[in-house]
Specification:
Structural class: alpha/beta
Radius of gyration: 27 Å
Shape: globular
CATH topology of the largest domain: Rossmann fold
Strand order of the largest sheet: 5-4-3-6-7-8-9
Strand content: 5-15%
Helix content: 25-40%
Family: Belongs to the short-chain dehydrogenases/reductases (SDR) family.
CATH class of the largest domain: Alpha Beta
CATH architecture of the largest domain: 3-Layer(aba) Sandwich
Organism: Capronia epimyces CBS 606.96
Bound molecules: nicotinamide-adenine-dinucleotide
Keywords: NADP, Oxidoreductase
Number of domains: 2
Number of strands: 9
Low-confidence stretches: 1-43
Mean pLDDT: 85
GO biological process, one term: mannitol metabolic process
InterPro entries: NAD(P)-bd_dom_sf, Sc_DH/Rdtase_CS, SDR_fam
């Protein structure tokens, strides 16, 4: 439609609006407002009469007209944050669940026929935060799909223990081919510290010879109402979640660019909190951090497309891990609220991320970059 006909349509619509009373409106409006027409060639005015309140309508009370006048303490309560919920990430990690054994595998790598592009055979993958929780279970998925693995974590001791267990489990489940054993190593790193990241990437390349894939799962959450959130804790939260993701990704990207390969890929672990506001626990800085991670994936995907490095994000919903277990132990009533807000009616298990991470790292998704895959039960 050209400018002249657009203007004609506006003039036509405006004059019809001026002539016609709004449906259901009486002739004696409570308030009368007027506005100048968009049509610059006419000085004609239109009047707009707001809808008269109808107190006999039983639903009036719950309509937007009612806001501020009849809204009681119940209205909106199920969708609000509760400032009394305070969860501090423990300084002593032993407060979180004790040693977690790796998942029981499915026995035998070649028992099930699969699309070959899903295989990560010959690839080396790095998982930050890989000693526990989602990172550990995703790392196991990468090993089951053929990759060698470097577990990166603040807790190197736990990483080493898990590396050993993953190898033992692989041997138990693949007894027919004792020669084929994945190389799994553990490395200390504080992902929020640039020097530690550079050192760690160097150590991995020394041990494995190369890196092909990265999953950034190091991260944590805390709950404080925004107006009392301790600033130093907020900086630490963003440091690990956002800076840590950025530092590790850029370090690995430089390595991939130096190698000049075409299959490099990276997956960031965001959260559904990067796109929605969780209730009732207040966690504005965490939500903002996860939104930053999601958009970082989209931005780096564009920036590094020329180098054939794909960057995608997985945004999990509520998954049952050491941290969420501790939160639920402290506040059992949260379980009911959370599951009532999940369409499938239950929290996820870390295993539910295995297919997503293998897909996004492998060549099966070679035309997918900058995407955010929500794994959140709806
Ligand atoms: N569990 C959930 O329901 C859920 C949901 C959505 C997103 N996430 C995200 O998934 C990621 C993993 O969560 P999780 O539940 O497995 O947590 P977790 O606490 O079980 O595991 C996190 C791991 O990261 C490590 N880590 C923490 N700070 C680190 C640092 N500075 N440097 C290196 N390693 C560090 C920890 O030692 C731990 O091993 C986090 O980014 C989290 O925000 C979790």
């Amino acid at each position: 439609m050209n400018t002249a006909s657009t203007l004609r349509l506006l003039r036509h619509t405006s004059s019809r609006l001026a002539a016609r009373p709004a449906a259901g409106v009486t002739n004696t409006p409570l308030v009368k407002t007027s506005a100048r027409l968009l049509n610059t060639t006419s000085s004609q005015r239109i009047t707009h009469s707001p809808r008269r309140k109808n107190d006999s309508d039983p639903y009036h009370k719950v309509s937007t007209d009612a806001t501020g006048t009849s809204a009681g303490p119940h209205e909106g309560s199920a969708s609000r944050t509760d400032r009394d919920i305070i969860v501090e990430y423990p300084d002593d990690e032993s407060e979180l669940a004790a040693h977690q054994p790796p998942l029981r595998g499915r026995g035998g790598v070649h028992f099930v026929r699969t699309l070959p592009t899903f295989s990560l055979e010959g690839r080396t993958a790095v998982v930050t935060g890989g000693a526990r929780g989602l990172g550990l279970v995703m790392g196991q998925a990468l090993v089951s799909s053929g990759a060698d693995l470097a577990i990166v974590d603040l807790n190197k001791e736990e990483g080493e223990k898990q590396a050993k267990e993953l190898v033992e489990m692989f041997r138990r489940e693949n007894p027919d081919d004792p020669e084929v054993v994945p190389k799994i190593t553990a490395h200390y790193c504080d992902v929020s510290d640039p020097e530690s990241v550079t050192e760690c990437i160097g150590e991995i390349v020394d041990k494995h010879g190369k890196i092909d894939h990265l999953v950034t799962s190091a991260g944590f959450t805390e709950n404080f109402a925004a107006e009392i959130y301790p600033y130093d804790r907020m900086k630490k939260l963003w440091g690990v979640n956002v800076d840590g993701t950025y530092l590790f990704a850029t370090g690995v990207a430089r390595h991939l660019m130096d190698r000049n390969i075409t299959h490099g890929s990276i997956v960031f672990i965001g959260s559904m909190s990067g796109a929605i506001v969780n209730v009732p626990q207040p966690q504005a800085p965490y939500n903002a951090a996860k939104a930053a991670i999601r958009h970082l994936a989209a931005s780096l995907a564009v920036e590094w497309a020329h180098a054939h490095i794909r960057v995608n994000c997985i945004s999990p919903g509520y998954m049952l891990t050491a941290l969420t277990r501790k939160i639920l132990d402290d506040k059992p009533e949260l379980n009911k609220t959370w599951t009532s807000l999940i369409p499938v009616g239950k929290m996820g298990s870390p295993e539910d991320l295995q297919g997503a991470v293998v897909y996004l790292l492998s060549d099966a998704s070679r035309y997918v970059t900058g995407a955010d895959l929500r794994v959140d039960g709806g």
